[in-house]
Amino acid sequence: MFLKLALRNIAAYKKRTIVTLLLTTITTGLLVFSTAWMDGSHQTMIKNAVEIYPGHIQITGKDFREKPSFDNLIFEAAIIQEKLSQIDGINYFASRFESFVLFSADEKAVGGMLTGIEPEQEKYLSRLASSLLKGEYLTQGDTNQVYIGHEFAKRLKIDLGDEVAFVGNGADYSFAADNLTVKGIFQTGLYGFDAGSAFIAKKYFDQIMAAENYATHFIVLPKRTEKAEELAVEISRVIGPDYQSASWNQIMADLVKAMQLDSLFGYITLGVIFIVIFFVIMIYTLLTVFARIHEIGILRAIGTTPQQILAMLLLESSLLALISVIIGGLIGGYFAYYFQLNPIVFSGYEEQFKQYGLAVSAMPTAFAPLVIFRDMLVMFVLSVLSTLYPIIKINQYRPVEAMRHV
Amino acid sequence: MFKTTFKIAWASLVRRRTRSVLLILMIAVSLWGLLFMEGIYDGMTEQMINNAIRSDSGHLSLFGEGYRLDPDLSKWVMDIDALDTFLASDTRVKSHVMRLKQDGLVATAHYSRGVAIFGVNLDEEEKHGKMAGYLHRGEFSFGKRDRGAIIGFKLAEKLQVRIGSKIILSAQDSQGEVSAAALKVIGILKTNNMSLDENAVFMSGKRMRKLLTAKDGVSQIAVILYDELNIPELQGDLKKEFPHLDVQRWDELYPALLQSRIMMEGFNLVTNLLIFCVAALGIFGVMLVSVLERLREFGIMLAIGTRFSQVSTIIFTESFCLGFIGFCLGSLIGFVTLYYFKINGLDLSVFSDAFEEFGMDAVTYAIIRPSYFIMALAAVFLATFFSVLFPLRILKKTKPIDAINTI
Q1: Of A374, B88, B209, B373, which one has the fewest beta carbons inside 10 Å?
Q2: Residue range B286-296: average pLDDT?
Q3: Is the pLDDT of residue B110 over 70?
């Protein structure tokens, strides 16, 4: 009975129906797409930042992350290695030894990071190998051969086959120096990284830096990357309190927070737009409901209770909201899905992305049905709420008042 | 005459009180939100730009030819005197400073990393870009006998150094040899210019000359002007006067910041448009209904000899009244809000780590530009104007007799 009446009324008051439908649909679509866009771009940025070099899980000496000095190294790399190989959820892992040294080529001396890596495993842990620009990537048995960032090589004015010397501290604080030959040049697109990093095979590195069985980091790639946090906790338990195991959201807490901040601003903007939109919906509901004040007065006069009228009007607005939320959700969801498959490319904004340390210009949206459903629900509630005030207000009139209202 | 029109218009607005109040509230709230967003977002971008200008690029920066591609001592600017005289005598120039810069390595007892070493004169820097305002900890000085250093706060974090810690700087000197100096950290800077916070060590210019065995020349001259509008002109003049120098505007040195500003402007425009389109729809609905329900009333007015132009004036007046009151209310609360945040700043320190990541200040001081209000006023009037056109057309098509006879 109510449903029939409500449907009839929806059909009868076309203007309100169209405006409400249109606005709620657009709003829902906008929200769904914006959320997908924000989540997607943030996930991409973080994924990129994680995968280029830092890795999903880092294991370090207990205080190394706070005090990255050689006093807080992993001094028993072999034991860690053995323990890690027993954990089930790990796909790949490898050790690294990072140190800052002064590089010097023919006429240039520049400070930078020299890291000993295990080339074979490192292939799976970071994008180093796949970022090869010229020459070759490292192999396990390499000696004094260096794999260097493109911008870094440019700063030092060296190219493939050239020699570069370095001076630095060994793990025992002794003086360490050697001549290296450029074997390969890489470019990840992350400017700061490409302009200050060089890599050599860890076996050889350990000899010159007196770092045998030492490491600054172990990098772990989980079998299921979304379970990185749980895995990091499990690793912590296995390797004991002398070491620290942190997942990417701890390692890159700043970036994660920055993304949250970006979302916050996004939601503020959307919020302002939504407030205006729901004001308009409220106004239109007010207009139509008051246009029907005679009808409602008569209904009341012939014995319809205020509750019944409330139910009828609410049913009308709920139906409208439901239809538009579904359409809007489908539209927004479609765009979210489409742009997930065909990422939006920002070719003009690489400079800005670079400044934030992001080596991507293509941003896919995140198509997540659950999130879309949440957004639709929010919009439904808001849409119905915004019609509440006019509906309650009209119910406060007495039947005679309503019928005589001009 | 207009008084009567206004009276009629006002009376009909008051008659539908709920509706009028809702509409005014809608306009006011949307305006308030818009003004708030514009002021805060602009404040953020301008602060970022301002930080870069004060701490590094100035409005214009001069480098030796080819220095930016290959920052080598041999490419420094040598004829400083002529440049100094030119800049000092130019009335557009507010201040200029000369800086030395060389890439090198900073080491503590436990840790070392690559840095950019700057040789500066602190008094000049303070006059130029109020650099002391960026001091995060410690003192803004190089100590007695110039043996101190001021370093970026991120660098300090990474090096694990505090005020009073000793650091060793090494860099290549003019002879191609690596030379080193031991300095004490006296101050820590937080400029929110990421490249400086992460990489910069400031030391006394004099001392740096000794370290690098570089008697003459500077690597960068940063110029700040009184009026931003004169930047391109002065750039042209400098290029003509010193053809062998590389003269760069701040936005050429920090293209990302200019992009942020353009992006923000575009973003503001789009939100403005979106909000006013929706708001116009709201006004349209109210005006349409208010004309339709008074068709009979207007019919009678027309029948007793009121001209159509007079009737339409009444309707326009109603619409403009609503728009104008909404605008005034919105502008007022918008202005008060922005003024509050202009003085006290919007403190988002909860997210300070995140702001650091973006290279922004955690406290944003809003900007209030007259253009916000002018734009909004224009938009409100356009919205009120266009939303009345369609109802008027309906009214025009209706014959007075029909209008009176309906119902």
Answers
A1: B88
A2: 85
A3: yes
User: Which pLDDT band holds residue B353 (cuts at 50, 70, 90)?
Assistant: confident
pLDDT for position B188: 93
Residue among A335, A119, A99 nearest A217 (CA): A99
A305 φ, ψ to 5°? -80, 155
Contacting residues of B for A100, CB less than 8 Å apart: 105, 107, 111-114
Find the domain containing A105 and state its range: 56-248
Are residues A237 and A337 located together in one domain of the fold?
A: no
Model pLDDT for residues B117-139, shown as the tens digit of each residue: 999 999 989 989 888 888 988 98
Residues A166 and A287 in one domain: no
Least Cα distance to B169 among B142, B144, B194, B131 occurs for B142
Whether residue A356 is predicted with pLDDT greater than 60 in this model: the reply is no
Average pLDDT, integer, range A136-141: 90
Contact B26 A354 (CB under 8 A): no
Beta bridge partners of A96: A117, A217
Tell me: the pLDDT tens digits for B157-180? 888 888 998 999 988 888 888 888
Statement to judge: residues A283 and A243 lie in one domain: no
- Check A291 against B289: CB less than 8 A apart: yes
A345 and A225 within one domain: no
- Determine the residue type at A72: N
Distances (CA, A) of B288 to A286, A288, A371, B10, B394: 13, 12, 38, 17, 9
CB pair distance less than 8 Å for A279 and B22: yes
Angle B123-B128-B134 (CA atoms, 0-180°, nearest 5)? 80
Are A269 and B178 in contact (CB < 8 Å)? no
Domain identity same for A203 and A293: no
Decide: A98 and A211 in contact? Cβ < 8 Å: no
pLDDT confidence of A106, banded at 50, 70, 90? confident
Q: Tokens 């927070």 label which residue?
A: A257
Interface test with B, best of A102, A251, A259, A267 (most B CBs within 10 A): A102
What pLDDT does A358 receive? 57
The Cα–Cα gap between A196 and B195 comes to 13
Which pLDDT does position B152 carry in this prediction? 92
Distance (Å, whole) CA A398 – CA A223? 68
Predicted local distance difference test score (pLDDT) of residue B118: 93
Asked whether residue A191 falls in the same domain as residue A62, the answer is yes
Judged by CB atoms closer than 8 Å, whether chains meet at B30 and A275 is answered as yes
Cβ contacts from A onto B, under 8 A: 163
- Amino acid occupying residue B382: L
Contacts of B25 in chain A (CB under 8 A): 279
Backbone angles phi, psi at B173, to 5 degrees: -95, -175
Chain A residues with CB inside 8 Å of B170's CB? 102
For chain B, the structural domain boundaries read 2-52+257-405, 66-243
Name chain B contacts of A270, Cβ cutoff 8 Å: none
Q: Considering only residues 31 to 70 of chain A, which have any Cβ-Cβ distance to chain B shorter than 8 Å?
A: 67-70
**B26 contacts: CB under 8 Å, gap ≥ 6:** A276, A279, A280, A283, B279, B282, B326
Domain boundary among A248, A277, A300: A248
Q: Which two tokens stand for residue A249?
A: 């959201």
What tokens were used for A147?
A: 């794999």
Residue B191 has a pLDDT of: 87
Last residue of a domain, one of A199, A220, A248: A248
- Considering only the beta carbons, identify the residue of B30, B274, B285 that sits closest to A283: B285
Nearest CA in chain B to A195: B114
Count of domains forming chain A:
2
Say if residue A240 is in the same domain as residue A264.
no
Which whole number is the average pLDDT over B287-307?
Answer: 86
β-partners of residue A243 are A61
A347 and A232 in a single domain? The answer is no
